């Protein structure tokens, strides 16, 4: 977390700031989610036009089970990527990533940058695996995570219902982080970050 805030360059040469979300960002998050167009909103878990849903998800932040990185340009939130994880139980070493990028900033490499940030966070927390749960129709999101090394792990048929009420397959894309622990510096390697 010490490395934030930091600046990153998008494909078009524009600079974006990355920082960890705090409780003070909640109102801006509500505005950000309200600005998401319908075609992107289709794929979000809950109706984010309702501020209560955003407050429920992002209020009272606990970074151990939810690690949200914000991308900021011109003082506005333009993207958010979150790593969700269970604090205890049999899924404690599994992280789930969710990303949303403002329409105007899509196809500039921002999701790729943010997912990579979450990957390194998962690595530092010694998670075993990270995954993205997507509907079968989310071709762009699938392509984005595939390029980062995720692969299709499972398809659960007619498992979820989209906002139009249509039953869809749920596709689980995953990346085994444990296999990549060797990337960590020696001093991190010797410590045990796992939650017991
Ligand atoms: C999916 C999403 C996060 C991608 O964000 P992004 O910042 O545009 O992604 P990137 O620019 O990093 O794109 C990485 C790669 O993904 C693929 N991709 C991204 N958007 C795409 C699109 N609309 N059509 C086809 N491929 C696409 C491409 O392979 C792209 O690489 P390229 O631009 O070099 O060809 C964004 O479209 C979004 O917020 N969608 C709505 C919410 C959502 O579906 N979230 C995913 C849940 S995990």
Please tell me about this protein's structure:
A hairpin with a 5-residue loop joins strand 1 and strand 2. About 25% of the residues lie in helices and about 35% in strands. Strands 1-2-3-4-5-6-8-7 form an eight-stranded mixed beta sheet, with helices on both faces. It has six helices and eight strands, in the order ββαααβββαβαββα. It has a single domain, classed as Gcn5-related N-acetyltransferase (GNAT) (Aminopeptidase, 3-Layer(aba) Sandwich). The model is unreliable at about 190-195 (pLDDT under 50). The longest helix is centred in the middle third of the chain and has 15 residues, at about 110-125. It has about 200 residues and is an alpha+beta fold. Helix 1 crosses helix 3. The structure holds coenzyme A (COA). The site of coenzyme A has 20 residues, from strand 5, helix 4 and helix 5.
CATH fold-type name: Aminopeptidase
Give the ordered list of helices and strands: EEHHHEEEHEHEEH
Determine the fraction of residues in helical runs and give it as a percent range.
10-25%
- In CATH, the architecture is 3-Layer(aba) Sandwich
Numbering strands along the chain, what is their spatial order in the largest sheet?
1-2-3-4-5-6-8-7
Which class do the helix and strand fractions yield? alpha+beta
- Quickly count the helices: 6
- The outline comes out as globular
């Amino acid at each position: 977390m010490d490395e934030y805030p930091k600046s990153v360059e998008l494909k078009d040469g524009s600079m974006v700031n990355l920082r960890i979300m705090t409780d003070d960002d909640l109102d801006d998050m509500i505005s950000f989610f309200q600005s998401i167009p319908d075609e992107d909103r289709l794929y979000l878990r809950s109706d984010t036009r309702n501020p209560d849903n955003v407050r429920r998800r992002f209020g009272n932040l606990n970074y151990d089970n939810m690690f949200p990185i914000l991308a900021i340009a011109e003082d506005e939130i333009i993207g958010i990527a979150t790593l969700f994880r269970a604090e205890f139980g049999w899924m404690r070493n599994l992280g789930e990533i969710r990303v949303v990028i403002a329409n105007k900033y899509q196809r500039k490499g921002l999701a790729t940058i943010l997912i990579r940030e979450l990957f390194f966070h998962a690595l530092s927390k010694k998670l075993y695996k990270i995954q993205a749960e997507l509907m079968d129709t989310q071709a762009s999101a699938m392509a984005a995570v595939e390029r980062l090394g995720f692969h299709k792990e499972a398809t659960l048929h007619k498992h979820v219902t989209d906002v139009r009420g249509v039953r869809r397959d749920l596709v689980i894309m995953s990346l085994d982080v444990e296999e990549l622990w060797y990337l960590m510096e020696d001093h991190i390697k010797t410590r045990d970050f796992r939650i017991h």
